[in-house]
Amino acid sequence: VDGDIVEQVAGALRSGEPAALFIGGRACRGALLDTAAAIASATGAKLLSETFPARLERGAGRPPVERLGYLAELASAQLDGLRHLVLVDAKSPVSFFAYPDKPSDLVPDGCRVHALAGPGHDAAGALEALAAAMGVRPDAAPRHPVARPERPTGALTAEAAAAAIGALLPEGAIVSDEGNTSGLFAAGFSAGAPPHDWLCLTGGAIGQGLPVAAGAALACRDRRVVALEADGSALYTLQAWWTMAREGLDVTTVLFNNRSYAILNMELGRVGAAAGPRARDMLDLSRPDLDFVALARGLGLAASRATTAHELVEQLERSLATPGPSVIEAIVPPVL
Length: 336
Known about the structure:
Layout: H1 3-14, E1 19-23, H2 30-43, E2 46-49, E3 55-58, E4 66-67, H3 72-79, E5 84-88, E6 112-117, H4 123-134, H5 158-168, E7 174-178, H6 186-189, E8 196-200, H7 209-219, E9 225-230, H8 231-234, H9 239-247, E10 251-257, H10 262-270, H11 277-282, H12 292-298, E11 302-306, H13 309-321, E12 326-331
Parallel strand pairs: 1-2, 1-5, 2-4, 5-6, 7-8, 7-9, 9-10, 10-12, 11-12
Antiparallel strand pairs: 3-8
Helix pairs in contact: 1-4, 2-4, 5-13, 7-9
């Protein structure tokens, strides 16, 4: 641990100027997260995490963490006005994609970046030293209160699906999140659910969600894994369902079927590309429509289809209470 850097960061946080701790990697869980949250709370700094942390411990009783927005405009708004950005097991934030005529570096003008501990460095030691230098007790970290949404009824939308997940997510669950546009609301609705881990798509290569869910279930046999999976992403790695069936893994997959690569449609528009008939056709997932219930059953899993919020609640509750893997195909309209 570099004592000079620790003192530099302590001085920045004592200055009263707008500041944020930007955490990633190991700083998103355990004692490191507690210490970072306690320092942020004591100094009035924001506590932000990477857009897609590999693993984030969250839920009731754990420190609340604001994830940096996926869209550059949202991320820039979160960082706007900062004079100090402290990196803890994270790199300086950049936009997820490069866009024409827009900056990729998200650090605002006039903001100084302090690398307290870069990826691979001693983040635990650096946070402990910073807390000691500032007289902050790690056990003083704020905690998220218990807050469950009501079980939704009515039409099944991405928002209703997120409410169902937040209402039923069990304690100790591991969420593999590759819901993409249909999963946008899931993190917000589950923030006050019992303590759980959230695994994100870190590199941008869709198809990660189902293999990660299988790996998590193999590593943690005593915990329920919930895979939030977009239809287009699932097509890359459906064979992970066969592995789940073969190994008898406790994985509940909520498959969001909106019959579109909605995330790619959004990005196509954001780069200013003209979408002709051929381009639109490449991002459409109909003709023929995909039957994920049949696909899952063919790979050896129990599967069902939900077309209303009530059906999703019933099927999700049943799946979470039943050992082994299952798939719930949630028919939702595109968010975008």
